[in-house]
Amino acid sequence: MPDATTKACVLLAEDEMMVAMMLEDRLEHFGYQVLKAARLTACLALAESAAIDVAILDINLAGEVSFPVAEVLRRRGIPFVFSSGYGDDGLPAAWKGEKVLQKPYDTHQLISMLNGLRNA
């Protein structure tokens, strides 16, 4: 966990550039540092090695699912939330019960969920 002078780092896996830019602006406004990845390979590399406090994983990254990234984060003990326009219906049975942010994003829900994950 970061100290009071260090911004919490969010891994943002989002393949739609405009959505990623909007989310990055919102997250930075609320004091988060953002690492973005639009493709599965880049996201996996960050998930394996970056100093991440929490992650937002779009389920579909340019036609590839982000579940391998979730597995890496789970192994590292890093909390994450999936994001989807389909809500919980976008998750296969193996991932049911994980937190899902519904697109389009509500800023208060987004920040509340991230803060909850960090404090869990």
Please explain how this structure is put together.
The chain is an alpha/beta fold and 120 residues long. It has a single domain, classed as Rossmann fold (3-Layer(aba) Sandwich), CATH 3.40.50.2300. Helix content is 38%, strand content 22%. The chain has helices at residues 17-29, 40-49, 67-76, 107-119; strands spanning 9-13, 33-37, 54-58, 60-61, 64-65, 80-84, 100-102. The chain has a 5-stranded parallel sheet, with helices on both faces. It has a two-stranded antiparallel sheet with strand order 4-5. A hairpin with a 2-residue loop joins strand 4 (60-61) and strand 5. The longest helix has 13 residues, at 17-29. The protein is globular.
> What is the N-to-C succession of helices and strands?
EHEHEEEHEEH
Termini separation (Å)? 12 Å
Overall spatial form: globular
Mean pLDDT: 91
Helix vs. strand class: alpha/beta
Number of helices: 4
CATH architecture descriptor: 3-Layer(aba) Sandwich
Tally of discrete structural domains: 1
Largest sheet, if any? Answer: 5 strands, parallel
Order the strands across the largest sheet as they lie in space: 2-1-3-6-7
- CATH topology tier name: Rossmann fold
Spans where pLDDT lies below 50 across 5 or more residues: none
- Overall strand count: 7
Q: How much strand?
A: 15-25%
> What is the level 1 CATH name?
Alpha Beta
Domain Response regulatory: 9-118
Protein name: Response regulator
InterPro entries: Bact_response_regulator, CheY-like_superfamily, Sig_transdc_resp-reg_receiver
Keywords: Phosphoprotein
